[in-house]
Specification:
The protein is an all-alpha fold. It has 9 helices and no strands. It is a multi-pass membrane protein.
């Protein structure tokens, strides 16, 4: 039976996603074995960190202001100004800051990984690495995964601070809520364990961004057109994966009475 184009695309995506999960396991196995090329890590840390910090901070700042405006409007009507910072802490700090950071890095860094490695695949540079007895996972994938695992949690913290600053500004500017009152409410609702979970989310999101981007690049076939398609598919797949991971973590952690 002849497959329709839609069926072919679905099967192709499933196969490539399965390959990405296998690559995820290989990456951590190689990492435990100490197989990596250290000289490339710093280069990718710059791409995943300083080169990406401006859009992360910009989006986080405006997101913090938007969320505060929408939340404070409702709470002020019921005389619950003291809870504005707490609502901000529960929603923005726990969820929005890590997700927004992960999605921005996926669009900027993950797509670049997929495009770079995809171009190497279609120009047979990956085959040349095998001829030189160099494992592409050690040479291409591991440095990118390590860079994202280190930088995405750090960017998430910066996004968190910027979002809180935006929330403080919006609360004071539009609803005359004192910064001290807003921050005290944030502090009373946001526990130290929440900060650990936020960093954990950044770590998991960073590893997924790098692995999916690299995997989609390694499985690219065809020419220049397919390289662009791989980059786009890698970003969409990473976004879906980020939300799935966040959902699972929410069930496991925030559904637990100990947290």
């Amino acid at each position: 039976m002849k497959l329709r184009p839609k069926d072919h695309l679905e099967r192709s995506w499933i196969v490539r996603f399965g390959a990405a999960m296998l690559l995820f396991g290989q990456v951590w196995l190689h990492l435990l074995q100490g197989k990596m090329h250290n000289r490339h890590i710093m280069e990718h840390m710059v791409k995943a960190g300083p080169a990406s910090i401006f859009p992360v901070l910009l989006v986080s700042g405006f997101a913090g202001m938007i969320f505060t405006i929408q939340t404070a409007r409702e709470l002020v009507q019921f005389g619950a100004e003291n809870a504005v910072g707490g609502a901000f802490a529960l929603a923005f700090c726990r969820e929005l800051a890590p997700i927004l950071t992960g999605c921005i890095i996926a669009g900027q860094v993950g797509s670049a990984f997929a495009a770079e490695i995809g171009a190497m695949r279609v120009t047979e540079q990956i085959d040349a690495l095998y001829m030189l007895r160099t494992d592409p996972i050690d040479y291409l994938v591991l440095p990118r995964v390590i860079a994202c695992c280190l930088m995405v949690p750090l960017l998430t913290i910066f996004a968190l601070v910027t979002g809180i600053a935006g929330g403080v500004f919006a609360a004071f500017q539009f609803y005359q809520i004192a910064p001290e009152k807003f921050l005290e409410s944030v502090r009373s609702f946001l526990e130290p364990s929440d900060l650990v979970i936020i960093v954990l989310k950044g770590f998991l999101f960073g590893s997924m961004i790098a692995v999916v981007g690299c995997s989609w690049g390694l499985t690219t076939k065809g020419g220049v057109k397919q390289v662009g398609e791989s980059a786009t598919a890698a970003v969409v797949t990473t976004w879906v994966s980020i939300f799935v991971i966040d959902f699972v973590l929410s069930l496991l952690l925030f559904n637990n009475p100990t947290f």
